[in-house]
Structures are given as C-alpha cells and as structure tokens.
Amino acid sequence: MKKTIIALALLTGLFATAQSSWKLDKSHSKVGFAITHLMISEVEGHFSEFDITATASDTFGDAEFTVDIKTTSINTDNERRDNHLRSADFFDAETYPSITFKSNGYEKTGEKTFKLTGDLTMHGVTKPVTLEGKVNGVITDQRSQKLKAGLKLTGTINRLDFGVGGETASLGNEVDLNINLEMAQQ
After folding, report:
1. 118 and 142 Cβ atoms separated by less than 8 Å
2. Is 65:52 a contact under the CB 8 Å cutoff?
3. pLDDT in tens, 136-167
4. Separation of alpha carbons 163 and 90, rounded Å
5. d(CA 179, CA 150)
6. What CATH number is given to the structural domain containing 170?
7. Tens digits of per-residue pLDDT, 74-96?
8. What is the rounded CA–CA span in Å between residue 1 and residue 163?
9. What band does 6 get if pLDDT is binned at 50, 70 and 90?
10. CB 159 within 8 A of CB 165
11. Residues with Cβ < 8 Å from 10, sequence gap 6 or more?
C-alpha cells in the first residue's frame, strides 16, 4: 500500500509540472518598442507581423519561447520614417526579413515574475539578451475551455550592438522593448 501511494505521488508530481505548447493570440498581443528622438522625446512603434510560440507549464512557469518578427511590418505611425527604417540605413528588411529570439534560460524571480534569457538575432547579428517577465494571470477560456495566459515582457537593447543604424545625435542608441502577450494552451 505504501509503495502505491508513493508511486501515485510521484506520478502526480510529474504531471503537475508537465510542459505543453502555447500559441500566440495575435489579436490580443503587441510587440512594441520606444526610442529617444532628439534627446528630448520618445517615439514609440510596433511590429504588425510576428509569431510567438512557447512551451510552459499550466501556470506558465519554466517557459521557453521562440519568436519570429517580420522587419517589413515596422509601424511608427509615420510612413516616411517606416520606409527609412526598412531601408539599408537601419533594418535592411530586404536582406534581413526577420528578427528572431530563442530563449535558453528561465529564472523565477517572484510569485508572478521571471527573467528570460535567450539569443536575439537582428540585422544578421546574434547577441544574448535578458528580458524581465510577468505572468499577469492564467485563466480557463469560457469558449475553448483551454487555458489562456497573459504576459508582459520588457527589456532594453542597444541597436548599435546589432548594427541597426549608425551613431547619430538625433536618435538614441537604447531601445526599450514592451511586449504584451496573450497565449493559448494547445
């Protein structure tokens, strides 16, 4: 009897920490950024085309992410600026059509917070980055009866480290990332 109880407890523990696939709910997600302009203001933008998948537990713990962002989809609400950002002066979207991120580390830092590390590839350059994460909540969707998770990821990168644009007094080097995600368990 004791062996049966121990075996059941071990199996329950294994299933409780099982990882599953999560897919992006794009209509409730945004990959945004902000950068200083002329040292006095901040310009915000986002990417309209992106795909993000994850593997995580039911509480969205110990997550692993794979991200693909299309550089041609940059949107700062200014067509002239967006076309310039797509050009060889910045993203060179024709040569480098995607920005990718593959996580390789997850560290829980609080009840709902975590640090996510991984490799970011942009403009043909790959560098390690660390993002701060927060699980806003996990619920069961009433329609699908599947779990949905809300997340926020933030961080700062230096665009010059990736060869995006050159040194200029009119544009800051640091880019703040602000990513809001809604993920659906598959």
Report:
1. no
2. yes
3. 999 999 999 999 999 999 999 999 999 999 99
4. 8
5. 11
6. 2.40.128.110
7. 999 999 999 999 999 999 999 99
8. 64
9. very low
10. yes
11. none
* Token duo for residue 115: 């640090």
Torsion of CA 15, 16, 21, 27, to 10 degrees: 150
User: Phi/psi of residue 53, each to 5°?
Assistant: -125, 160
Owner of token pair 């660390």:
130
Residue 41 belongs to some domain of the structure: yes
- State the residue range of the domain holding 89: 19-185
pLDDT at 17: 58
* 11 found inside a domain: no
Instruction: Tell me whether residue 75 is in a domain.
Output: yes
d(CA 165, CA 123): 10
- Paired strand residues for 55: 21, 64
Q: Taking the complete model, does pTM exceed 0.85, yes or no?
A: yes
Q: Determine which of 8-12, 32-36, 144-148, 176-180 has the lowest per-residue pLDDT on average.
A: 8-12
Q: Count of residues for the chain?
A: 186
**Contact present, 47 and 70 (Cβ < 8 Å):** yes
108 within a domain of the structure (yes/no): yes
Higher model confidence: residue 18 or residue 23? 23
> What is the spatial distance between Cα 120 and Cα 106, in angstroms, rounded to a whole number?
15
